[in-house]
Design goal:
Layout (H helix, E strand, L loop, with lengths): L5 H9 L4 H5 L12 E4 L2 E5 L2 E5 L8 E4 L5 H11 L20 H14 L7 H14 L4 H8 L4 H5 L8 H15 L2
Antiparallel strand pairs: 1-4, 2-3
Helix pairs in contact: 1-5
Length: 182
């Protein structure tokens, strides 16, 4: 990915953000230390123009904690690619200063997918992977719903996959619990 678009992939994957949420971000939505991202709006591309509107659902408006290993990339991106104004877009089309160009980003995304051997990977798959990883850390269903901005447990359950070896790990934890509380 081009340097000025790399953070979009990191936020989608590690914070489970939707594409429209990522590209609607402004400087004021991100903590200066990169620790949180506030989702308040989304951008869509329709009939050749960008439209900024509300998030997908009311619950999609949320504050997402950025994992510590991603924070340096957030801070670096803000310093090198984002204007000083609180309203400055986090991802911009260099030629216009407006929203990151759909064609430019898609072209880079397609090349990146091929480069990593995943030509069928969709941008939304990053969000799914992020949700699954969050669930695997032990997040409760309610925490997962809040983090993803979901309104129903059924939607959040799509991210509750059993990781290979996870059942054995949980069985070991049960034995450890039994050993301390006979």
């Amino acid at each position: 990915m081009p340097d000025d678009a790399r953070l979009a992939v990191l936020l989608a994957g590690w914070c489970a953000l939707r594409m429209g949420e990522v590209f609607a971000l402004r400087r004021c939505d991100i903590a200066a230390d990169g620790s949180t991202v506030r989702i308040e709006r989304a951008v869509t591309y329709r009939e050749g123009k960008f439209e900024v509107g509300p998030t997908k659902t009311r619950e999609s408006r949320r504050v997402v904690s950025v994992p510590p290993h991603v924070r340096p990339a957030v801070v670096d991106h803000l310093a090198r690619h984002v204007g000083e104004s609180d309203e400055a877009l986090v991802f911009v089309e260099p030629s216009t200063g407006s929203f990151a160009g759909e064609k430019r980003f898609r072209t880079a995304w397609e090349a990146a997918r091929v480069a990593v051997g995943q030509p069928d990977l969709h941008f939304h798959d990053l969000r799914h992977a992020g949700g699954v990883l969050y669930a695997h850390t032990g997040a409760t269903l309610r925490e997962l719903m809040d983090w993803l901005g979901h309104t129903s447990p059924n939607m959040a359950m799509r991210y509750q996959h059993t990781a290979e070896g996870r059942t054995a790990e949980l069985a070991d934890k049960l034995s450890a619990l039994a050993a301390t509380n006979p």
